[in-house]
Amino acid sequence: MKSSLKKRLVFAFLSTILVPILAAILTFYLGANQIANDEDELDQLFTDVRREIRMNEEKLPNQDAFYQEIKTLLDRYQMNITIEGEGDEVLFDSRTYIEVEELNSFLPNLNTFTIQVAGEEDRKWGVTIRANSAQSEPFKRMTDIVHILLLSVGIGVLTLLLMVVIWTTYISRTVLTPLKQIYQATEEMRNGNLDYPIQYKKRDEIGRFIQGFNVMRQHVKDSFTKQKQYEDARKQLIASISHDLRTPLSSIKGYVEGLRDGVVRNEEMKQRYLQVIHDKTTHLDHLIEDLFEFSKSEADQLAIEKEVVNVVEYFEKQLIKYQFDLQEQEVELSYTIEPQPRSILLDPIRIEQVMSNLIDNACRYGGTRIWIEVRPDQSERNVIIRVVDNGQGIDKEDLPYIFTSFYRAEKSRSTQHGGSGLGLSIVKSIVKAHDGEIDVESESGQGSTFVITLPLYVNGEVVDL
Ligand code: ADP
C-alpha cells in the first residue's frame, strides 16, 4: 500500500493526541463502573438516617436524648448529621457531641450530602450528613473517584509518553535514517564512488526522492563511462590512423628512395617498383577516403540523397557490373533477384557503396564464390539483401565487434588484407540512415553471410521496419 509521508505524519499527530485521551477515558470508565456498585451502600445510608430520625422524632426537641438514640448510627457510619427545621433553624447538630475530624480532602464537600426527611404531620427536615473519615463506607466512594481520576490522568500521560517515544522512533527510522543514507551516498559520489545505490523499498515521498537520486547516480555513472569509452576510442583512433597511414607511407618512401639512389638497374625492376608505389598510394587513397567517410558518419553528416528506385532494376544493374569486374579476379558472383514490382526509397550512391564494401570484403577475405539474393520478406514490407561468400569466415569472438570502427579481426590483421577496419562501420551508418538493419552470420572457415533489411516504399510511404 502506498502511504504518503504526509498521511503518516497526520496519523502520528492525531494518534498522539487521541490515544492517551482514549486510554484515560477507558481507565476512568472501568474504574467508575466499579464505583457504581457502591451506589447501593449510599442509598442504605440515607434510608438508615431517615428511619432513625423518624423513629426518634419526639425526642428531637431534647438534643441530648436524641443524640443518645442515634449515636450508634453515627458511630457506624463515622459521620455527623445536622438537622434543620423548616425555618432553617438548627434543631440538632451532632458536631456539638463528637469532636469534628477535619477531612483532608482537597475537594471540599466531597463527602457531604443533604437529604430531605419527612416526619409525621407533614413535618419536614433538611438533614446534612458529613463524613468524618474518607475511609468509611460509603464515603470511601468519593475518595475512590479522586483516585480513579488521578489514575486516568496518569495512564493518559504514560500513554502520551509512550506514543511520543514510538512515533519519534518510527519517524527517525523512516525519515532520518534515509536522510543519513542520502548524505552518505552524496559523500561517496563526491569521493568518486558511483557504485553506491541507496536501498529503500517504500514508495513514499522519500522513496521517490531516493529513486530519483539513484537514477541520477546511474546517469552520472553512465555519462562518466561513456566519456571514458569516448576518450579511449579517440586514443585508439589516433593510434590506428597513425599506424595505418605510416605503414604504406614508409613502404612508398623506401621504394622512392630506391629509385632515387639508382638501386633499380633495369626497366623490369623499375616497373615493379612503380607498381608497388602505385598499389600503396591507391591503398592510402582508400584509407583516407574511408577515414573521411567515417568522420562524416561519426558527425552524423553523411550526406544521403534518397530517391525512389525500382528494386529489381537498381540491384540488377549494379550486380551485372560487379559480376563483370570480378571475372578478372577469378571470383564468381551469381545472384538472384526475385521479380517484384516494388519500389524503395534510397540513396543509390550510398547503397552502392554498401554493396561494394560487402563484395570487396568477401573477395578480400578469401571468397571465390559470392552469392547475392534480393527478395522481399514475408510481410512484403521490407527487402532482404543477403551477401553470402565462401571465404575464411569470422571467428565467434570477433563477430560482435566487426561493425565497430577500426575493428579488424586478428586473422585479418596478421594477413596482408590491409583494410582500415572502417568499412563495415560505414556500411552500418549508411544502412541505419535508411532506417534499415544489418546483421551477420558466420563461422570460422565456413564463409560469411551479411543480411541487410531495408524498408520498402509502399503507397508513397516508407514502411516501418
Ligand atoms: P576492413 O577494412 O578491415 O575490412 P571492415 O570494417 O570492412 O574492415 O571489416 C572488419 C573486419 O570484419 C575485418 O577486419 C574482417 O576481419 C572481418 N570481415 C568483414 N567482412 C568479412 C568477410 N566477408 N569474411 C571474413 N571476415 C570479414
From TrEMBL:
The keyword Manganese does not apply. InterPro entries: HAMP_dom, HATPase_C_sf, HATPase_dom, His_kinase_dom, HisK_dim/P_dom, HisK_dim/P_sf, HssS/ArlS-like, Sig_transdc_His_kin-like_C. The keyword Nucleotide-binding applies. Keywords: ATP-binding, Cell membrane, Kinase, Membrane, Nucleotide-binding, Phosphoprotein, Transferase, Transmembrane, Transmembrane helix, Two-component regulatory system. The chain crosses the membrane at residues 145-170. Pfam families: HAMP, HATPase_c, HisKA. Residues 240-458 form the Histidine kinase domain. Its main location: membrane. GO terms for molecular function: ATP binding; phosphorelay sensor kinase activity. PROSITE patterns: HAMP (PS50885), HIS_KIN (PS50109). One of its GO terms (cellular component) is plasma membrane. Residues 173-225 form the HAMP domain. It is a multi-pass membrane protein. It catalyses: ATP + protein L-histidine = ADP + protein N-phospho-L-histidine. It is found in: Cell membrane. It comes from the Bacteria. Its EC number is 2.7.13.3. This is histidine kinase.
